[in-house]
Amino acid sequence: MTTISVADARNGLSQHIESAASTHERFDITRNGSRVAVLLGADDFDALLETVDILSSSDEMAALQSAIREIESGDVFSGDEVRAALAARRSGSNPDATPAA
């Protein structure tokens, strides 16, 4: 995070936008020493909105908590097991094939 004044933001706006978009740098913009705005890339802003959306959804949070419990209990499949199941489904040999736990 970089802190810049409104005047500096104005003078280097194009460069700051490029930096925010390409390096994910965030700029806190100050007026008279107080933080008044933030400049960040559009992708980072969209990611923030998506995160807020997920965190505000009880269904999404329940699914995440369930997935964490499954991982912690070892209820997972190896990469080889997943690849084998996908290959079996593609070949049609066993369309209901699922990796063995």
Question: What does this protein structure show overall?
Answer:
The protein folds into 2 domains: 2-41, YefM-like domain (YefM-like fold), CATH 3.40.1620.10; 57-91. The two termini are 45 Å apart. The chain has helices at 6-11, 13-23, 42-55, 58-73, 79-91, and strands spanning 2-5, 27-31, 34-39. A hairpin with a 2-residue loop joins strand 2 and strand 3 (34-39). Strands 1-2-3 form a 3-stranded mixed sheet. With 101 residues, it is an alpha+beta fold. It has 5 helices and 3 strands, in the order E-H-H-E-E-H-H-H. It is elongated, with a radius of gyration of 23 Å. The model has no long low-confidence stretch (mean pLDDT 92). Helices cover 59% and strands 15% of the residues.
Q: Going by CATH, what is the homologous superfamily of the largest domain?
A: YefM-like domain
- Can you tell me the CATH class of the largest domain? Alpha Beta
Strand content range? 5-15%
CATH architecture term of the largest domain: 3-Layer(aba) Sandwich
**Separation of the first and last Cα atoms:** 45 Å
CATH-assigned fold name of the largest domain = YefM-like fold
- State Rg: 23 Å
Count the DSSP helices.
5
Q: List the strand order in the largest sheet.
A: 1-2-3
Structural class: alpha+beta
The helix/strand series, from N terminus to C terminus, equals EHHEEHHH
Largest sheet report: 3 strands, mixed
Which overall shape is indicated by the principal axes computed on the Cα atoms? Answer: elongated
Mean pLDDT figure: 92
User: Uncertain segments of ≥5 residues (pLDDT<50)?
Assistant: none
Q: How many strand units? A: 3
Share of residues in helices: 55-70%
Please give the oligomerization state of what you see. Answer: single chain
Structurally, the number of domains stands at: 2
